[in-house]
Amino acid sequence: xxxxxxxxxxxxxxxxxxxxxxxxxxxxxxxxxxxxxxxxxxxxxxxxxxxxxxxxxxxxxxxxxxxxxxxxxxxxxxxxxxxxxxxxxxxxxxxxxxxxxxxxxxxxxxxxxxxxxxxxxxxxxxxxxxxxxxxxxxxxxxxxxxxxxxxxxxxxxxxxxxxxxxxxxxxxxxxxxxxxxxxxxxxxxxxxxxxxxxxxxxxxxxxxxxxxxxxxxxxxxxxxxxxxxxxxxxxxxxxxxxxxxxxxxxxxxxxxxxxxxxxxxxxxxxxxxxxxxxxxxxxxxxxxxxxxxx
Length: 294
Description:
By secondary structure, the protein is mainly α. It is built from 15 helices and 2 strands. It has helices spanning 7-21, 34-44, 49-62, 66-70, 74-81, 88-103, 112-116, 123-134, 143-152, 164-172, 179-195, 214-217, 238-250, 258-261, 268-280; strands at residues 285-287, 290-292. The longest helix has 17 residues, at 179-195. The chain is globular, with a radius of gyration of 21 Å.
């Protein structure tokens, strides 16, 4: 690794920048609980920060501990999730709360393996909770981190499709040994990718890595490597139909009839397919008279 990319110099630049420029977000404040960190990580998956903050505050006011959430039906989690998208996350979070209450006495575990054993928690979320809630030293890699490394270290305008082995190794090579510095570096890399080294129109003039960025030094070459598959348009998709049906179920405390759902979406085949999918995913329950939340 060239001198410009010595892990200590790279990390110091990011950590110093982070401490001076980080946004004031609820999950970064002193006293924020491990449960709050877990909830925020679930909500932040593919959802903008601005939409998460009010829902997170509402959620933690209503269910300040895993036991509080575990004590209500899973449908209440789905109802409160509202417009955050990907509502199966609400079911997984409820299932995780039940498991934490039953297996860990209501305390979110700090160990990555124990976190991975909880329902709905993957490698990223397990590492993020262990690092940001408990200060453990692990690499945490999201889309923003991958983009910063691709540009600053690899000289590529975009990251290649995700690879856990490659991505974690690349982040580990830069991670400070000191645990507080490692946690700050993880957060700093995410913040840098979120507000400076953005996908379009990066703000290189404000970047702490600009002087040594391999992509910038190469003249910002266009990316020609493999790309992650692009998700199909939302408008007119089954996802849109599912969302509309769920909105009807959230707004009712009695079964919504099949006849009422006809007004939600005109295409009967697509509507029925969406209903079957919601039932199969546990997001809707067929009852006499119609459908309800679980």
